[in-house]
């Protein structure tokens, strides 16, 4: 069941997208397709399981590098935009804790390099309101201990992935 906190974070990202135009037109929606490394599968936040995501199947899974347990949604069809999971809403960004600012923030997801044509542009190439909304949404989640713990697992996985390159 979604908490109010999760819903607030999702709502912040309801209408903002990485670019002013539909970025999916540049890559034929690559992040929603199975290319063997990214796409087609998305990890769900606590509270997102059991929701109305009937375009895919949900499984208990594990993160590939750190082996942390996570619930994953494997998409078999295009989703209903209003019900997209949180991590699809912020892609190609990912949460991380900025030691410099002592704040949760977002950075380009290194795993996006394999699939997303926006990766090379960095955060500066994305809509500023998209980046701001993603950062605020992550900070909302981080205000709750359970969600912050989940963010830490995500950050650890993405950092560990970087180390494998
Ligand atoms: S891969 Fe990148 S450019 Fe393509 S739809 Fe996903 S976020 Fe947009
Ligand atoms: S939930 Fe939607 S946006 Fe996310 S991977 Fe599946 S089809 Fe793509």
Ligands (ions, cofactors included): iron/sulfur cluster
Total strands: the figure is: 5
**Overall 3D shape:** globular
What structural category characterises the helix and strand content?
Answer: alpha+beta
Total individual domains: 1
**Whole-Å distance between the termini?**
37 Å
Beta content:
15-25%
Helix-strand topology string: HHEEEHEEHH
Our Rg estimate from Cα atoms comes to 15 Å
Unreliable stretches: none
Tally of individual helices: 5
Helix content: 25-40%
Mean pLDDT: 92
Placed side by side, the strands forming the largest sheet appear as 1-3-2
Major beta-sheet overview: 3 strands, antiparallel
Question: What features would you describe in this structure?
Answer:
This protein is 32% helix and 18% strand. It is α+β, with helices and mostly antiparallel strands and 165 residues long. The protein has one domain. The protein is globular and about 40 Å long. It starts with a helix and ends with a helix. Bound molecules: iron/sulfur cluster (2 copies). The site of one iron/sulfur cluster (SF4) has 8 residues, from loops.
């Amino acid at each position: 069941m979604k908490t109010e906190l999760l819903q607030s974070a999702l709502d912040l990202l309801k209408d903002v997208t990485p670019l002013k135009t539909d970025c999916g037109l540049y890559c034929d929606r690559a992040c929603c397709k199975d290319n063997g490394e990214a796409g087609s599968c998305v990890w769900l936040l606590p509270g997102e399981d059991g929701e109305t995501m009937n375009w895919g199947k949900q499984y208990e899974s594990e993160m590939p590098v750190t082996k942390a347990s996570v619930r994953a949604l494997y998409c078999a069809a295009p989703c209903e935009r209003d019900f997209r999971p949180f991590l699809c809403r912020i892609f190609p960004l990912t949460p991380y804790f900025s030691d410099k600012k002592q704040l949760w923030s977002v950075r380009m997801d290194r795993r996006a390099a394999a699939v997303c044509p926006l990766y090379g542009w960095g955060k500066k190439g994305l809509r500023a309101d998209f980046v701001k909304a993603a950062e605020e949404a992550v900070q909302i989640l981080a205000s709750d201990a359970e969600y912050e713990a989940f963010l830490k697992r995500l950050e650890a996985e993405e950092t560990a992935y970087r180390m494998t390159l």
